[in-house]
Design a protein that fits this description.
single chain; about 90 residues; mainly alpha; 4 helices; about 55% helix; Glycogen synthase
C-alpha cells in the first residue's frame, strides 16, 4: 500500500482495520468457504473493472492507499485510548 498498490484482502483480523473496500484497496468476506471464494472473485472483478474503465477512481484508491501508515506508536495510542478512557455514561449500577 505504501507504494500505492491497492490490495485484495480477506476482511478479517488486522486486514479489516487496514484495507477499506474501494477506498484503500479491495476486501471480501463470507460465512462459508464457497461464499468467500465467490466474494473474492467478485472483488477482483470490481478491481479489474476500476483499473480498466474508471482510471480516476483507481488513481484515488492508489493515493488513499499510499497515504496509509501503520506504526506501532499509532497502534499503541489507539489501544491506550480504548483501554484507559473512562466514560461515566457506560457505567451501570446494579
Amino acid at each position: 500500500m505504501r507504494n500505492g498498490q491497492p490490495c485484495l484482502v480477506h476482511h478479517t483480523g488486522g486486514l479489516k482495520d487496514t484495507v477499506q473496500h474501494v477506498h484503500t484497496g479491495f476486501a471480501f468476506d463470507g460465512k462459508t468457504y464457497d461464499e468467500k471464494v465467490y466474494n473474492m472473485v467478485e472483488s477482483f472483478k470490481e478491481a479489474l473493472y476500476l483499473f480498466q474503465h474508471e482510471k480516476t477512481t483507481w488513481k484515488q484508491i492508489q493515493l488513499n492507499a499510499r497515504k496509509m501508515r501503520f506504526t506501532w506508536k499509532k497502534s499503541v495510542d489507539e489501544y491506550y485510548k480504548l483501554l484507559y478512557t473512562f466514560n461515566p455514561a457506560e457505567v451501570r449500577v446494579a
